[in-house]
Input
Amino acid sequence: NGDVGPNHYVSSVNLVYKIFNKNGTVAAGPFKTSDLFTGLPANDPCRTSNDGDPVVVYDSMADRWHISQFAVPGVTNNFQCVALSVTGDPTGAYYVWSYLYPGQIFNDYPKVGVWPDGYHMTFNQFNNAGTSFLGAGILTQDRQKALVGDPTASAVYTNIATIDPLAGGLLPADVDGLRPPPVGMAEVMSEYRADEFGDPIDGIRYYRWVPNFTTPGSSS
Output
């Protein structure tokens, strides 16, 4: 997967990412995705693990690059590793965060959407053994704090399984281009429903998600 900006295309494949100029020549890389996180403490799983499922998105509203992958150390806890470029140059420096995924859940199949309020990440959730599906989850990073590299930039979590345990495959809306959504418009996420999986009809279900970074319990 990858995304395109004014001057670059950034591609991530399995365990590596690579940066191209718009004319197709290589600007940098390939690098291990875990190389982004060398600034974290030595024992942080995001620094020591390179487990994959990477996602690259370009934030056109701020001219930044958001690169993430999961860290699944094979123990009780799992993590989502997030890097955000300090400038619009994807070959330059990155701010980095390591987020513990709540509930001792395996945060599989991450997808990321850029929205004015946050970087919205969706997951298919499993037990640590990967043998039991636990529904869908959302983890949203505070975009305003992330843009200035604030180490306290939090990530608000909600478990869609409490609404519908069969929900899965959520895709977050993602801003492309230079025109932002209307002020105050909630992030929209969608998922498919199919009679092959026990639903009465084939269709698309939509969720509106409003994280509250000050009082996470007031998110809706």
